[in-house]
């Protein structure tokens, strides 16, 4: 049976398939937190800052429509894959992409509220590309989405866990196209 979400909850899992009650029960081993709203994301990010553990945040599953769109562009089938964020990935993002040194690299420091954008970056991306492969020869995928600025979300495919694992997130200033000049 599919759980019905409130309008506020739907905002954070937009275009991802939410989990059934039975699926959520199967996650009750304590290592998986299922996103219902932004409070779950904030809690997970805050906990990751102070505790290094094996917990994961599950945003939802990639549906067939989104999977088909991705598959047409990069030839990877992600149908029913869980979109997952590990505790250690949050720590990496906060330790390497959230301080003022990002400006020196032409990037904008990540804030914890930027984690709210993850579902939208995946489901409404402007560009998707394969940027490499893991040591296990699994594709590393970059999703780019302009939301005021340009977000870059790097993920890798884990067939063993049937997940699209988020590795890192960074943000750049969006470059406005030059206005056309009359000849």
Helix and strand composition category: alpha+beta
Give the overall average pLDDT.
Answer: 86
Helix content: 25-40%
Helices and strands, in order, run as HEHEHEHEHEHEEEE
Description:
The chain is of the alpha+beta class and 183 residues long. Helices cover 28% and strands 30% of the residues. It has helices spanning 7-10, 21-26, 38-50, 64-74, 87-97, 118-123; strands spanning 16-17, 32-34, 56-62, 82-86, 107-108, 127-133, 139-147, 149-158, 163-172. Strands 1, 2, 3, 4, 5, 6, 7, 8 and 9 form a 9-stranded mixed sheet that branches. The longest helix has 13 residues, at 38-50. It is globular. The N and C termini lie far apart (62 Å).
Outline of the structure:
It is built from 6 helices and 9 strands, in the order αβαβαβαβαβαββββ. The chain is α+β, with helices and mostly antiparallel strands and 183 residues long. Strands 1, 2, 3, 4, 5, 6, 7, 8 and 9 form a 9-stranded mixed beta sheet that branches.
């Amino acid at each position: 049976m599919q759980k019905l979400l409130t309008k506020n909850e739907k905002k954070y899992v937009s275009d991802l398939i939410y989990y059934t009650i039975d699926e959520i029960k199967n996650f009750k081993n304590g290592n998986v937190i299922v996103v219902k709203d932004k409070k779950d994301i904030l809690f997970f990010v805050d906990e990751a800052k102070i505790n290094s553990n094996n917990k994961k945040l599950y945003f939802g599953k990639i549906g067939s429509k989104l999977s088909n769109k991705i598959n047409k562009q990069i030839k990877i089938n992600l149908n029913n894959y869980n979109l997952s964020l590990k505790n250690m990935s949050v720590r990496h993002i906060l330790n390497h992409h959230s301080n003022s040194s990002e400006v020196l690299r032409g990037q904008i420091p990540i804030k914890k509220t930027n984690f709210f954008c993850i579902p939208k970056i995946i489901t409404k991306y402007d560009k998707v590309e394969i940027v490499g492969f893991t040591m296990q020869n699994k594709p590393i995928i970059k999703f780019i989405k302009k939301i005021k600025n340009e977000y870059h979300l790097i993920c890798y495919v884990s067939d063993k866990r049937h997940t699209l694992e988020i590795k890192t997130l960074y943000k750049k200033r969006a470059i406005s196209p030059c206005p056309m000049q009359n000849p």
